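Annual report, structural modelling task.

Input specification for the pyridoxal-5'-phosphate complex:
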Amino acid sequence: MKIKVCGLRVRENIVHVDQLEVDYIGLIFHEESPRFFSDQQLPDTMAKKIGVFVDKDFELIMNTIKEYQLKAVQLHGKESPELCRKLLKSDLEVIKAFAVDDDFEPSVLSDYSDSCSYFLFDTKTHKHGGSGKKFNWDILQSLDYSLPFFLSGGIGPEDANAIRSLRLNNLIGIDLNSRFEDAPAIKNFDKLSAFIKEIKPMKYKINEEGYYGSYGGAFIPELLYQNIQELKENYLKIMESDSFQDEFIRLLKEYVGRPSPLYFSKALSEKYGAQIFLKREDLNHTGSHKINNTIGQILLAKSLGKKRIIAETGAGQHGVATATVCAREGLECVVFMGALDVERQQPNVQKMQMLGAKVVPVESGNKTLKDATNEAIRDWINHPEETYYLIGSVVGPHPYPDMVSRFQSVISEEIKNQLKQQTGNVNSDKIIACVGGGSNAIGAYYHFLDDENVKLIAVEADGLGLETGETAATTAAGSPGIIHGSKTILMQTDDGQIVEPYSISAGLDYPGIGPVHAHLFETGRVEFIRATDDEALKAAFELTALEGIIPALETAHALAALPKLEFKEDELVVINISGRGDKDMATYQKYIESLKHPYQPPKMLTQAEHEDVNGLFIP
Ligand SMILES: *Cc1c(COP(=O)(O)O)cnc(C)c1O
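The model returned the following structure:
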């Protein structure tokens, strides 16, 4: 959430407010305003200085820009789209303000949608802002605006909660003014500071009741109440204790091999015209990010005195990671796996068995991840006392999504440090990850969530394509509902029956997403895109040919984002390489075969596609 503090005038006050690390400091160049800015010298600020104008012409605005080194303009009058466009072309951020009341006519917005950076919605008064009055925020719900916007108009210290619970796509920032003043143009530091603390970091984290916005919670049968309650009361206490942290960090380092490298891919960078880095979770022990979470949870289960561990698995990576930590701790391990997945992920099944786990093939439904999860929950209900359910993604009832996010957040913590060391920047411009339940993605995003300049991109598995219905792209094909203990977005029929998902990748073949991602999707913080089976396969062969890294099929979906996105040359892009492709060799082999015999089923390819793939050194 960007914070803009508007209507400052006094030098010391500006310096003071800048210490709060706000994003914009607004100076009003409208003579009739009680906050009219006419000082001659301005301090340097970390915040961008933005000039607020009402019906001024281009020349005057540009002169003011130069004089005060403004980076952005906010236009509060009847400025035309042409003027906005001219300013936008002059390398300025342009915010067009609209006064809103119950009669607001939303069609005016469309004229401005390609000539501004942001909209700002303010209360309609006979003056131009700074009235201290709110408008009816519900109106914003029905607007079909194409640009991110700032909310303005009478926001006060008591509004933090209301703003945090607003569910508005494209709400990117808030504008604070008269309600945080001691006198016109003199801002109250303490009031601002308290408010910003409340609003900034909380936006994408879980609240006291276990919700991310309207998603999350714990929808569980009575029989599991005790288990969830026990976990809820203890997880943070245990996780934050020194003894836990020492052991967790030691194992990540000595057993998993962390930190995983951040590798600069020269070949991908040249091909796609950006500075592309690969976060190598594939190099972890057991071959994916899953181990970060299983190490965390097994230590927690041990602290709670549990002796029997159950887990669900799709691709088998979570099953292997769970069987691995159970072997290390000498705990009984039962892994539920869809019968179809047992078939297509044989190497992982064999590993789990060698590690001493019992693998239970699940024959219900589509025989994939959802069905395995149902079966694991059923087992848990039948053995609640001695059993710990070790969930493999940011799904399930509260506190699992938060707990798993925290364990996986080590990924983004390392990315920040490594970027700093390797490039001098702490932030990436874009971070790309695939999303099944969403644990590798949230791990890669976690420490960047509050920095809205970092663009976060999630890639969902689109199977044969959304229009065929054979997809696992949950945000595109789904709607709000409850699955596996939490409220989230899932693929369902009109009467709430779960729609069977489809993806070539077992780890992404799931009809829901974690509640945190439902929230990140709905607030627009994360951009969700899709990649089909074919696009993912191509991307897997591309990375293999260019870098000698065979990615997991899940990861290949994240890589498939590259041709779909636009980059600037110097942009820093991090792709989370969630896992390695050993387990997927049978699928990759089949794909090669299908290319060798192009005129036979299962797949027809165009000539262009052939050349494309043949160019990637396939025999
Ligand atoms: C399990 C898995 C995924 C998908 O799970 P998330 O919780 O969405 O991360 C992605 N990549 C690999 C390699 C996996 O094993």
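The chain has a mean pLDDT of 92.
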